[in-house]
Amino acid sequence: MHVQGHIFVVTGGASGLGQQVTKSIIEQGGHVIIMDINSTGANEMVESFGSDKAYSSGSVDVTSEEQVKDAIQNGLCHFKNNNEELFLVGAVICSGIVWPPQSIEGYGPNNQLTSYSQFKHVVTINLLGSYNVAQQVAQVIMNNKPLNQDGERGIIITTSSMLGLDGTLVGYGTSKAGVAGMTLPLARELSNFGIRVMSIAPGPFDTPLARAIPGVEAPVSLFPKRYGQPSEFSDLVLHIINNSMLNGSVIRLDGALRG
Ligand SMILES: NC(=O)c1ccc[n+]([C@@H]2O[C@H](COP(=O)([O-])OP(=O)(O)OC[C@H]3O[C@@H](n4cnc5c(N)ncnc54)[C@H](O)[C@@H]3O)[C@@H](O)[C@H]2O)c1
């Protein structure tokens, strides 16, 4: 499957890994519907790449069924107005948060433990939001004509985390374990429609999220001894899109670091 001439949804496309994935897809001749709650950042991406390559319908919360549905429909209308031959073939889901907002309190000594409200907030965005986008994109893609002799129609790529696989941070780690865990069941469910599902579990990457708490530094990889670069994440995304045998798996991208 190729990027060239196809439309992808990228969530979290206004910052960090999603921003780089958006750039890389456009550089390869693709078109991107950016979904991000940060409308300013999403609009800046559209200005920088041009509305023939990137589209944003404003602030889109991945946890809202209505907002995601409208963003997909508006984005498809936008691109198909210029070229009827353009099809949505995939989603790269990069939206996410590590910590709940400070307004939601923890419990226990100094409120340091994870309260149900905090847990629910993080799981809702990271896990339910990812599934909301995956399901709605799959629902569109399954009606496409097959793209090749294999009968392939598209791909869903999610972003888990090393911390989800290694069991670190109750809210975040559980949400990312859920994202990793849905990869194979979803790949099985969508296999009859020629839709592949893959997940990437990064270690620390050099994005605003990795520096979310002032004074708290994420560890570097074992080798190379540094943070991952967003381009190393997007290179893997492009490879997954192009390699049809990659399906139903979670790939660690962490320089041998363990959480
Ligand atoms: N950077 C890392 O070290 C690292 C490591 C492992 C996993 N990840 C995962 O990679 C993904 C991308 O992270 P990043 O490092 O690029 O972070 P980032 O903070 O730079 O980007 C995340 C984007 O998600 C958007 N977002 C947050 N909540 C949203 C919502 N409800 N609806 C729509 N958009 C929303 C934000 O506005 C932001 O643009 C996240 O899922 C994160 O958990 C990152």
TrEMBL record:
It holds the Pfam family adh_short. Keywords: Oxidoreductase. It comes from the Eukaryota. GO terms for molecular function: oxidoreductase activity. InterPro entries: NAD(P)-bd_dom_sf, SDR_fam. PANTHER family: 17-BETA-HYDROXYSTEROID DEHYDROGENASE 14-RELATED, SHORT-CHAIN DEHYDROGENASE/REDUCTASE. This is 3-hydroxyacyl-CoA dehydrogenase. It comes from Circinella minor.
